[in-house]
Amino acid sequence: MPRKRISYWLLAGIVIAVILLCTQPEAQEPPATLRDYPEIKQSGILRAVTEYNAISYHVSGDTIQGFDYELLHAFAKEKGLQLEIIPEMSFDKRLQMISDGKCDILATGTIITTRSKHSLLFTHTLQLSKQVLVQRKKEEGKDSMYIKSQLDLAHKTLHVIKHSPTLLRIHNLMEEIADTIYVKQVTQYGPEQLLAMVAEGDIDYAVCDEHIAKASIKDFPNLDINTDISFTQFYAWGVGKYAPILLDSLNSWLDTYTESKEYKQLYLSLIHI
After folding, report:
1. Strand 206-209 to strand 131-136: parallel, antiparallel, or no bridges (unpaired)?
2. Under a CB-based contact definition with an 8 Å cutoff, are residues 110 and 235 in contact?
3. Cα 165 off chain centre by
4. Could you read off the pLDDT of 229-254 as tens digits, one per residue?
5. Which helix (H) or strand (E) holds 117?
6. What pTM was estimated for this model as a whole?
7. Are residues 219 and 136 in the same domain?
């Protein structure tokens, strides 16, 4: 497998990290104001945080595209707002930017769980997806490494994004198989970088959103993503607990927009099912 493709995803993560690091102000910023829709409308600016990945927000050629990127632009245009988008790879930092009021919308597919509802208000469902195991395809003489079912995960080490909702599912899975699954939480990389690391042999197993895995799998022909880690789950955008009016505005708009021809074309072109 060409190293060029693998290096691309690793390099993308490094470039984003460097850009974000270099753009951090030296002086400590004053606390952000917690804003609901009236304050956002008055300012004329909508601030969103998303993840850099093949589904939400990414560079393609000389343009930026993505399912969440296009949805945000459609909403901002409809409401007459200027849009500011910040890509952030860390799940923890995305949540913190919402709770601190630095951003108004967490605009990337976030799994709706009982735990995540403690910190966010969720929009109506935008996607249905699930978590899948990322591993290398069967290799001659290495069949013991290949995971055929969830029962084979006992005593294996899975790499996941730090503090992501996937951790709760793995914890429940350990209860279901009555055995230990080891977990290493990754802070420096996003899901596509994890795929690259498995493909290269740096790690053996990772857990990734199925849509992102399917969108990226063409770059990694030696990978297998056919083993489910979770059942199908609801994915949505999130806003702060302090922004119920923004939530209502988003839901009202989504109810109409998701019935449009424009949305259906967007979904079919960017969500890989």
Report:
1. antiparallel
2. yes
3. 10
4. 999 989 999 999 999 999 999 999 99
5. none
6. 0.79
7. yes
- The upper half-sphere exposure of residue 48, i.e. CA atoms within 13 Å in the direction of its Cβ, equals 28
Residue 36: both structure tokens together: 């609901």
pLDDT given at position 106: 97
In a domain, 103, yes or no: yes
CA end-to-end span of the chain, whole Å? 25
Range of the domain at 138: 131-228
Q: What is the CATH number of the domain that holds 223?
A: 3.40.190.10
Count of domains forming the chain: 2
- Contact present, 243 and 121 (Cβ < 8 Å): yes
Q: Find where tokens 């994915």 sit.
A: 235
Q: Please check whether residues 123 and 201 belong to one and the same domain.
A: no
CA dihedral (30, 87, 162, 269) positive or negative: positive
Could you read off the pLDDT of 138-174 as tens digits, one per residue? Answer: 877 677 789 999 999 999 999 999 888 889 899 999 9
Mean pLDDT lowest among 15-29, 63-77, 184-198: 15-29
**What SS3 state is found at 184?**
strand
